[in-house]
Amino acid sequence: MIDRPSxxxxxxxxxxHPCPESFSAALHTRVVETLSARDCEVDDCDLNxxxxxxxxxxxxxxxxxxxxTNTAAVAAYVDRxxxxxxxxxxxxxxxxxxxxxxxxxxxxxxxxxxxxxLVGGRVTPNLTHIRRLVAVTTYGATRFxxxxxxxxPRRSVTRxxxxxxxxxxxxxxxxxxxxHASDAARGAFLDHVExxxxxx
Amino acid sequence: xxxxxVYCHPRPESYTAAVRDTVIARLDASGAExxxxxxxxxxxxxxxxxxxxxxxxxxxxxxxGITRDADSLQWCDTLIFVYPTWWYGMPAMLKGWLDRVLVPxxxxxxxxxxxSNIRPNLTHVRRLGVFTTCGASWWLTRxxxxxxxxxxxxxxxxxxxxxxxxxxxxHYLMDSSTSVSRARHLEAVAARTDRLIGASRSAQPVTT
Lengths: 200, 208
Hints:
Number of strands of chain B: 7
CATH class of chain A: Alpha Beta
Distance between the termini of chain B: 8 Å
Order of helices and strands of chain B: EHEHHEHEEEHHEH
Strand content of chain A: 15-25%
CATH architecture of chain A: 3-Layer(aba) Sandwich
Helix content of chain B: 25-40%
Oligomer: heterodimer
CATH superfamily of chain B: Flavodoxin domain
Largest interface: A-B, 45 and 45 residues
């Protein structure tokens, strides 16, 4: 019975596209609907709508390693992250990376004492309550071109984030070559995402 | 030679500032014309917003708000990034610079009736450099696959001249760095900058 999807209590959905009419927004809607239908509590975090600032300031940088005080500027986001047992990100790949607003979420919220602890100089994962890690994304580039570039966003999720979360399941769901994707291909990808989340 | 240095660090007193100064000193010594973009000092806005996304593909309008950056990008033949590596990538501020400035008509050309693929438009850039610092070790960075390095040295490079020369130097394990390791790394930065721009290691300024 190991493969049967277990209940996800609370999922934090990080959405990072500025336009409500975008295909990313359609993916975001489908993700939230599918998770809600699974009886999962969804913490829907639309970074642009919430006007999240991705800029790590000089003051934050100076206090970065002080675990007593370093969460002050982003306390609400830290609480939301700590309450989640699934992290689902919906974002477009821009220039072979996360949009800045999402990269800044990691810069500012994934702090020492939050996402990792330094134990004897070694980084120890500290988001192990996140049992499911999912990325739903789109590329303008073809898969071939992305592989040529070493597919940095895929590594950022499946290696970097997986390292600090150590989830039971990680899913990286990507639609490449968006500039040529037909309505049928987009529709099929929406359904694919829904099925993967149902089985998560 | 026309060099554009894109620098990104929030603290003016940081070691990354010393790396920047080393790079610029070598560029000056070689006689290169240099422009510096200091993103934090300029309060650069890194988020591509809905209005910008709307006009993203409209090459007649998509330089609004980033004219100075786009002009510098088209002016340079040498492009150098100096930044700290956070979470194996560049700071959001610098990623946002790529998101907002590398627009169609500046950095690349969108597919049209004749061409079905994205085509590079930074083919005047013949040298691309990355100088950074990492908290992680060399081997862990390699194991993760160095996504930040790849975003620039492979992703951005796809938009540059076909035989674009590259340079990379990182000081790893920054949290246990010493004044000796930091000084030694600055020497490596100077040497790799010289190699990138084809300058000799002699103290004589090279005239071009």
